[in-house]
Write a structure and sequence with these properties.
With 93 residues, this protein is mostly helical. It has helices at residues 7-22, 30-49, 59-71, 77-81.
Length: 93
């Protein structure tokens, strides 16, 4: 489906918009950002029950992924948080 937007994209967009509106700094307010992500996901799940929004699936995975994207280093954040990982090589931009 061309033009289809995933649940993660919608949630990410809503979280970023609320961060801008509230003037939050993800680097300085990680606790607030985590709570905001949880609130947006809960609201999205409620709305998806009564509309044609795509389902979230695993809400914990969604919360972690969105939090990593808006307050961390995206897909690299999991590796940065893992104490077993000693180094990360990035081959391409």
């Amino acid at each position: 489906m061309a033009g289809a937007t995933s649940a993660m994209e919608i949630i990410d967009s809503e979280v970023r918009e609320l961060i801008r509106r509230r003037g939050l700094d993800p680097a300085r307010n990680p606790g607030q950002i985590g709570s905001l992500v949880d609130e947006v996901i809960a609201d999205y799940e409620d709305r998806s029950l009564y509309s044609s929004l795509p389902p979230v699936g695993d809400s914990r995975f969604a919360a972690r992924t969105v939090l990593d994207q808006v307050a961390g280093f995206g897909p690299l954040q999991r590796y940065l948080d893992d104490p077993e990982i000693e180094e990360i090589w990035v081959n391409e931009p």
